[in-house]
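RECORD TYPE: inverse folding
INPUT: C-alpha cells
STRUCTURE:
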C-alpha cells in the first residue's frame, strides 16, 4: 500500500494563506485616501471633478479644504476634515468620523455638521472661528469639540449658530473657548480646564439639559436655562450685567455670581415666575 500524507496540515496552510490574502484585500479596500478641494465645476461636494485626485472623499478618507466654497447638499461622511481659509456650506448633513481640524474660514449653511462618537473637532489656532447663522453643530456621545491643547490662548467662536452637545466640550488648560452669540445646548460634559464661556450679547444662550459641568464654565451676559433633568452636581459662573436666568429647575446646579475683574461687576435678571432651585453663591463665598 502506498503511504499517504494526512491532509490536515496542508488544509490549514491553505486556510491561513486564504485568511492573509483576504485580510490584505480588506486592508487595501479600507485604506484612507487624501483629497484636496480644487472646485471649478460648481461647488458641489459630491462632484468628483471638484477634488484632486478625481473622486469624492468617503467615510475613511482625508479631505483638505483651503480655498473656495464647497457645498454639502445631501448626507455625506468623511474620515478626517481640514478647513482653512475657505467657506464650507453644509445644507445637508456632514458626518465627521475621525477628526475635524478647523484652522480658519467659515462653517455655515442651514444643515448639520455631526461629530460622530470617537471623533474630535479641534479649533486650531487661537483666533476667531466663524459659524454661519442657523448652522447646527451636533456632537454625538463620545465625540469631542475642543480648543487646540497645544496652543494657549482665547478661541472665539462667533455666529448665531446652534451647538448641541451629547459628548464633551473641552477647553484644555491655558485656553478659553468662547461662544459669541450662539446657543450652546448641552446634555453631555462641558469641561473648562481653562475656561468655557457663553458670551451672550443680544442672543447667546446656555441651555443646560443634562450631563455635567466641570472646571470653569461661565455665562456672560447670556440667557441661562437649567432643566430639571440635570442631576449631576455642577457649578455655573455668572458674569456681566445683562444676563437672564430664564429657568432653573435643578437643585443640583450651583449658580456663582462672580465679580470677575476682567469682565466687570455681575448680576442676573430673574423673571418673577422663575425660582432657582439650587445653591446661589456670591464670588468665593
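DESIGNED SEQUENCE:
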Amino acid at each position: 500500500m502506498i503511504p499517504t500524507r494526512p491532509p490536515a496540515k496542508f488544509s490549514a496552510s491553505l486556510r491561513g494563506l486564504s485568511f492573509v490574502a483576504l485580510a490584505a484585500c480588506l486592508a487595501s479596500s479600507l485604506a484612507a485616501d487624501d483629497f484636496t478641494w480644487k472646485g471649478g465645476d460648481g461647488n458641489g461636494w459630491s462632484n468628483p471633478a471638484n477634488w484632486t485626485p478625481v473622486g469624492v472623499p468617503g467615510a475613511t478618507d482625508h479631505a483638505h479644504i483651503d480655498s473656495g466654497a464647497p457645498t454639502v447638499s445631501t448626507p455625506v461622511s468623511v474620515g478626517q476634515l481640514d478647513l482653512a481659509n475657505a467657506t464650507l456650506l453644509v445644507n445637508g448633513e456632514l458626518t465627521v468620523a475621525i477628526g475635524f481640524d478647523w484652522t480658519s474660514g467659515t462653517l455655515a449653511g442651514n444643515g448639520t455638521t455631526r461629530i460622530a462618537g470617537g471623533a474630535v473637532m479641534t479649533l486650531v489656532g487661537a483666533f476667531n472661528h466663524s459659524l454661519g447663522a442657523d448652522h447646527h453643530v451636533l456632537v454625538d456621545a463620545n465625540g469631542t469639540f475642543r480648543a487646540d491643547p497645544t496652543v494657549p490662548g482665547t478661541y472665539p467662536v462667533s455666529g448665531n449658530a446652534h451647538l448641541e452637545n451629547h459628548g464633551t466640550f473641552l477647553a484644555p488648560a491655558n485656553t478659553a473657548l468662547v461662544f459669541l452669540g450662539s446657543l450652546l445646548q448641552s446634555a453631555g460634559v462641558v469641561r473648562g480646564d481653562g475656561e468655557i464661556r457663553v458670551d451672550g450679547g443680544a442672543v447667546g444662550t446656555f441651555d443646560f439639559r443634562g450631563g455635567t459641568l466641570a472646571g470653569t464654565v461661565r455665562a456672560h451676559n447670556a440667557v441661562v436655562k437649567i432643566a430639571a433633568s440635570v442631576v449631576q452636581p455642577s457649578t455655573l459662573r455668572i458674569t456681566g450685567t445683562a444676563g437672564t436666568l430664564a429657568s432653573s429647575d435643578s437643585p443640583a446646579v450651583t449658580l456663582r455670581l462672580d465679580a470677575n475683574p476682567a469682565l466687570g461687576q455681575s448680576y442676573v435678571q430673574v423673571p418673577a415666575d422663575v425660582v432657582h432651585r439650587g445653591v446661589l453663591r456670591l464670588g468665593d463665598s
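NOTES: The mean pLDDT is 89.
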